[in-house]
């Protein structure tokens, strides 16, 4: 009904005739790839007729999008970032995310490990959820990424297209001609900067540190302002977490203004008030971790990447991928705005579901019970294999 409804708006992509289109089938669970649509209305007609579970288009532009990869003729690619709560440790992971080893049956909660701790296998059946805390965690990383791209790379906010992915995270697209021709190696350099990889903070000359002043641009500026803010506002717990010796906590609180002036402004780091370079290095690493954006690095460096299409439904939730202005990041509520099905109810047999919010309504928890739910909630539970339509 969603794809057949004339009022459903699937926004047209930039230069669709030069992109590869792909979609995943519901029943067969295989990916149809290397499709080309000369006119976008033909693509919309295909969606209404085929009704796939997930729909994608290439980030790349090709001379011949509908042939094998080695014959496509790569022209360029958008710069795309993917931020997903799957890759961000949160306290809620252990509440609503489950995994089962497909080889030995070992079960656990939280982030799915790379290998089974019992048998070493790397294939798992997973049940994951998207809650407010997941979205807040991902949103925080998007905010850091936007700050880096605007203030360090110089992209304007109008060039940064922000999307809710339809599940547990966000996508950010940049369709700037200047970056379109960047190869995978150049994109890797951007990724390294965004995640703060390879930052050099202090220099040594022999066994003694030289006087070293953090300058006022790039990561040096971020470290400088981050350290200054940390020393000015950190509580005892923060100081311990950052690696400061408990014996120096009182000294740090009493002399923080002197430390800021001597180290950050004058550039003398080693041995100031008995605080060695190792402590400053640990603090710098702590600040780097706080300021860097947690992105899926593979997505950004892959110049042939397929990305979920704006306006289409996510096969794991039934929610839409939705674009919104970057300035609305902190007010955008995906569990209201990205809901595709706003009318009707249906009965479902729910095996297991945590408490969740959808369209402003709090639902659950449910355990082995038949309930009548709004269609959007029923679709979400079915997509997540936590429910089935009741007879």
First-residue to last-residue Cα separation = 21 Å
Percentage of helical residues?
A: 25-40%
Helical stretch count? Answer: 12
Strand order of the largest sheet: 2-1-3-14
**Main beta sheet, described?**
4 strands, antiparallel
| Total number of beta strands | 20
Helical/strand content category: alpha+beta
Give average pLDDT, whole number.
90
In what range is the share of β-strand residues? 15-25%
Cα shape: globular
Output the radius of gyration: 25 Å
Q: Ranges with pLDDT <50 over ≥5 residues?
A: none
Structural key phrases:
about 400 residues, alpha+beta, four-stranded antiparallel sheet, globular, 20 strands, 12 helices
Descriptive notes:
It is a single chain. This protein is α+β, with helices and mostly antiparallel strands and 391 residues long. It is 31% helix and 22% strand. The protein is built from twelve helices and 20 strands. It has helices spanning 40-50, 93-96, 132-151, 177-180, 184-194, 218-233, 236-241, 249-265, 277-291, 297-301, 334-337, 375-383; strands at 21-24, 31-35, 54-58, 60-62, 74-77, 79-84, 98-101, 107-109, 124-127, 160-164, 169-174, 204-205, 208-209, 306-308, 322-324, 345-353, 356-358, 361-363, 366-374, 387-389. It has a four-stranded antiparallel beta sheet with strand order 2-1-3-14, with no helix packed on it. It is globular. The model has no long low-confidence stretch (mean pLDDT 90).
